[in-house]
């Protein structure tokens, strides 16, 4: 088989419609898909200061490459890359190398914040001290740092590398756990309310698959290898991921259908839960929270 557009040698096969694309047609296809997502959901506007959360992996560097391309054309848009070093031995140090290399090459300001410096312990140490699941601690503290550091940098948006697979997993996880209210905060641009303390999250790769992003990052030389967090296997997400992968292999397009149907009901969910929100501020740090004290401050106290 050959590329469906130009008859050149293909680099990717799409089982959903049994077609293939060559390298240059694939690059055009992916860029156009990302641009359509950005414009349809108004993810980027003139004068935005966007913090791009990067880990040095394929998703975040691909996100940064597309946003950087836009910022280079529209000079009123400012970007800053932020990397959170959780302190996961034999993993994060490898991806940091790729992140630094990418930012240096593209002349992008990179800020690195670590759990060790900000909270006194690495994630590896916290797991032993708190006897909690790694992803629970990591998720809470990383979200907290990204939100507070984005405010510190005077950014108004926070871009992440979440893709179609991450989002379809989150939708199913929330269904399985009866957490529909959390789903209401998701989507290509997050948040049901506008609040200065909540930096809105944008996900330009929302409709891109892992396979597409991995190939794009590899063909562009963004990453030196495939590194996976050693704690990923212990997570509930991993079980949902395996289940969806098996299902999608048998019934191609399943993840895409989950996202399309989710996008259709999302405005209804946002509308429903908008009126439910009574925003409080954490008694310890002043960040928005649904309880008296935010989850991050509760964890930080337990660490002391
Ligand atoms: S897999 Fe879990 S512990 Fe590892 S980086 Fe992701 S959230 Fe953190
Ligand atoms: Zn082609
Ligand atoms: Zn707090």
Overall description:
The chain has 304 residues and is α/β, with parallel strands linked by helices. The chain has a single domain (42-222, 235-276), classed as Rossmann fold (3-Layer(aba) Sandwich), CATH 3.40.50.620. Helices cover 50% and strands 12% of the residues. It is built from 12 helices and 9 strands. The chain has helices at residues 23-40, 58-73, 92-105, 115-119, 123-130, 134-152, 164-176, 180-183, 210-219, 236-250, 254-274, 295-303; strands at residues 10-14, 19-22, 49-54, 78-85, 110-114, 157-159, 200-202, 280-281, 288-289. The strands form 3 sheets. Strands 5-4-3-6-7 form a 5-stranded parallel beta sheet, sandwiched between helices. A two-stranded antiparallel ribbon has the order 1-2. A two-stranded antiparallel sheet has the order 8-9. Helix 2 (58-73) crosses helix 9. The longest helix is centred in the last third of the chain and has 21 residues, at 254-274. The N and C termini lie far apart (61 Å). The model has no long low-confidence stretch (mean pLDDT 93). It binds iron/sulfur cluster and zinc ion (2 copies).
Mean pLDDT: 93
Helical fraction equals 40-55%
Rough shape? globular
Second rung of CATH, namely the architecture: 3-Layer(aba) Sandwich
Quick take:
With 304 residues, the protein is of the alpha/beta class. It has twelve helices and nine strands. It has one domain (42-222, 235-276): 3-Layer(aba) Sandwich (Rossmann fold), CATH 3.40.50.
């Amino acid at each position: 088989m050959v590329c469906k557009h130009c008859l050149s040698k293909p680099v990717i096969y799409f089982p959903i419609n049994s077609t293939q694309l060559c390298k240059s047609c694939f690059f055009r296809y992916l860029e156009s898909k990302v641009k359509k997502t950005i414009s349809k959901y108004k993810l980027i506007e003139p004068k935005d200061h966007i913090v791009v959360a990067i880990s040095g992996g394929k998703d975040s560097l691909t996100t940064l490459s597309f946003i950087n391309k836009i910022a280079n054309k529209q000079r009123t848009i400012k970007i800053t890359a932020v990397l959170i070093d959780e302190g996961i031995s034999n993993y994060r140090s490898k991806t940091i190398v790729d992140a630094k290399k990418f930012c240096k090459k593209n002349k992008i300001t990179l800020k690195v914040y670590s759990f060790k410096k900000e909270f006194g312990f690495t994630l590896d140490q916290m797991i032993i001290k708190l006897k909690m699941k790694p992803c629970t601690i990591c998720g809470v503290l990383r979200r907290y740092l990204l939100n507070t550091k984005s405010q510190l940098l005077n950014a108004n948006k926070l871009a992440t590398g979440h893709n179609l697979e991450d989002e379809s997993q989150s939708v199913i996880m929330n269904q399985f756990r009866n957490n529909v209210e959390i789903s209401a905060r998701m989507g290509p641009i997050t948040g049901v309310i506008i609040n200065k303390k909540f930096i809105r999250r944008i996900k330009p790769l929302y409709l891109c698959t892992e396979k597409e992003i991995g190939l794009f990052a590899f063909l562009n030389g963004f990453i030196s290898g495939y590194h996976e967090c050693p704690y990923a296997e212990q997570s509930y997400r991993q079980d949902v991921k395996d289940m969806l992968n098996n299902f999608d292999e048998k019934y191609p397009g399943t993840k895409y259908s989950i996202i399309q149907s989710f996008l259709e009901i999302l405005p209804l969910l946002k509308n429903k839960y908008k009126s439910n929100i009574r925003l409080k501020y954490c008694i310890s740090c002043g960040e928005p929270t649904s309880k008296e004290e935010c989850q991050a401050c509760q964890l930080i106290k337990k660490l002391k």
